[in-house]
Amino acid sequence: MIAKSMKPFVEGGSAIRKMFEEGKLMAKERGAENVYDYSVGNPSPHPPMEVYQALEYLSTKMDPHYVFAYPSNAGYESTRQAVADDLNERFGDHFDMESIIMTAGAGYAINIIMKCLLDPGDKIAVFAPYFVEYANWARNFFADTVVVPPNEKKGFEPDAAELKKVLDPSVKAVIINNPNNPTGAIYSRESLEAVADVLREAEKEFGHPIYIISDEPYRELVYVDKKVEFLPDIYDDTIIAYSWSKSLSMPGARIGYAAVPRKASGSEELREALVASCRVLGANNASTLAEIIVERSLKSTIDLSFYYRNAKDLYRIVTEAGFEAILPQGAFYLWFKSPVENEMEFIEAAKEEGLLLVPGRSFCSPGWVRASFCGSHKMILRSEEAFKKVGKKYFG
Ligand code: PLP
C-alpha cells in the first residue's frame, strides 16, 4: 500500500503528460500527419557540434575511470570551476568553484534548494502562471505553495504589490522563472526590482532571509532585443537553478546546476547543505558524462533561429485564426487567450481538429492556453488549417 502523502501525486497526474500520451493514441488512429502536438517541451533541434565533439573526446581520449567513477557529490571540480568562470565573465564576479553544485537538470537543482530551505509547514510563493511541478516539489518537503494571481493587464509580469499580500513569516522562498514558461515573457527590470524591494522589506520585518529561486532553463532562448536580467544583480538572496536541457537540446542527459552567489545570506552553509542534499535525496551526483560534455560546450547553444522562425509562424497562424496571443520574447511557448472562459471546452474543440494544447489551469491561469513550439517547423505550417477551422467555430 502506498503512503497517503503520495496519493495526490498519483491521482493528480500531469495534464501535459496526459496530453502527450493522448497524442500518441490519436496519431495511431488518424495518422501522425493529422496530429499537431503542442503539448510537451521536448526540444527538436539537434545539440550543437561541440556536444558531439565532447562525446567523441570522452570516449576516445579520457581515462574511463575518470569518466565513469563516482565524482564528489557536487560534481567535477573542473566543471564547476569552468561554470563559475563562465558566469563571472558574463554577469560579474559572484561565484567560486564552491558556489556551483552540478545537478540532474534545473528540476533537481530546485529540489535540492527546497530541501535546504523548507521545513514542514513552510511556504514558497510563485507567480501565476507558473510551472506546475513547483507545487508538487514543495509538497515533497511538506511545504505549501502560495500563488500570486496572474497579472494579465501587465503582460503577466510578476506583481510586487500582490506578492506583498501573500507574504508571511512562513514564506521562505519565491520562485521566478525568466524567460517564462508558459507565457514566453522576459520580465522587465522594473518588475523584478519592485519584487526585490518587497522581499527586502519582508526580510527585515520577519527577521530571516527569503530567497529568490531563479529558475533559468530558458536563459539563452531569447528572440527580441531585451535583456534577461541577472537576478543576483538585483537581489542578494538569489539562488540560481540552471539547465542545459533547452540551451543544448539535451533534456534526457539530465544536467544543470544550482549556484549560490557569495553575497547570498548564509552562502557557505547553504553550499554545504546543497551538497549534502544531493546525497540524502539519493542522486549522489549529476551524470559524469553530461558534466564533461557541458564543460566542453559552455560557449555554445543550439541554433536559435529555429525557434525564432517557429515563434513567428505560430504567432501569425494563431492570430490570423482570430485568437489573442502574446508574441513570445523567449523560451519556446506561445500563450494565447481561450475564446471561451472555460478553456477546457476550447481544448476539446481543438483536439477534434488534431491540435494538442495545454490548458492554462495547469499553470493556475484558467482562460488561457499554452502551445509549445519546440517541434518541427513543418508541423507548425501543417497545423494552419486546423487552427483556422477551430477559430472559425468561435469567431465565425
Ligand atoms: N523549470 C521550468 C520552467 C521548466 O519548463 C522545466 C522543464 O520544462 C524545468 C524547470 C525542468 O527542466 P530540467 O529539469 O530538464 O532542467
Major sheet strand order = 2-8-7-6-5-3-4
- Tell me the overall shape: globular
Give average pLDDT, whole number. 96
What is the strand tally?
13
Specify Rg, calculated over alpha carbons: 21 Å
Helix content: 40-55%
Number of helices: 15
- Protein structure class: alpha/beta
Largest sheet descriptor: 7 strands, mixed
The unreliable regions are none
Please describe what this structure looks like.
With 396 residues, this protein is α/β, with parallel strands linked by helices. The N and C termini lie far apart (53 Å). It is globular. The model has no long low-confidence stretch (mean pLDDT 96). It contains 15 helices and 13 strands. The longest helix is centred in the middle third of the chain and has 18 residues. The strands form three sheets. It has a seven-stranded mixed β-sheet with strand order 2-8-7-6-5-3-4, with helices on both faces. Strands 9-10-13-12 form a four-stranded antiparallel β-sheet. A two-stranded parallel sheet has the order 1-11. It binds pyridoxal-5'-phosphate.
Tags for this model:
about 400 residues, alpha/beta, four-stranded antiparallel sheet, 15 helices, binds pyridoxal-5'-phosphate
Write the layout of secondary structure elements.
Elements: H1 7-12, H2 15-30, E1 36-37, H3 49-60, H4 64-68, H5 77-91, E2 100-103, H6 105-117, E3 123-127, H7 133-140, E4 144-148, H8 160-166, E5 171-177, H9 189-206, E6 211-215, E7 238-243, E8 256-259, H10 267-280, H11 288-295, H12 304-320, E9 325-326, E10 333-337, H13 343-352, E11 355-356, E12 358-359, E13 368-372, H14 377-382, H15 384-395
Parallel strand pairs: 1-11, 3-4, 3-5, 5-6, 6-7
Antiparallel strand pairs: 2-8, 7-8, 9-10, 10-13, 12-13
Helix pairs in contact: 3-11, 5-11, 6-10, 8-9, 12-15
Bound molecules: pyridoxal-5'-phosphate.
Residues 41, 105-107, 131, 177, 181, 215, 217, 243, 245, 251, 256 line the site of pyridoxal-5'-phosphate.
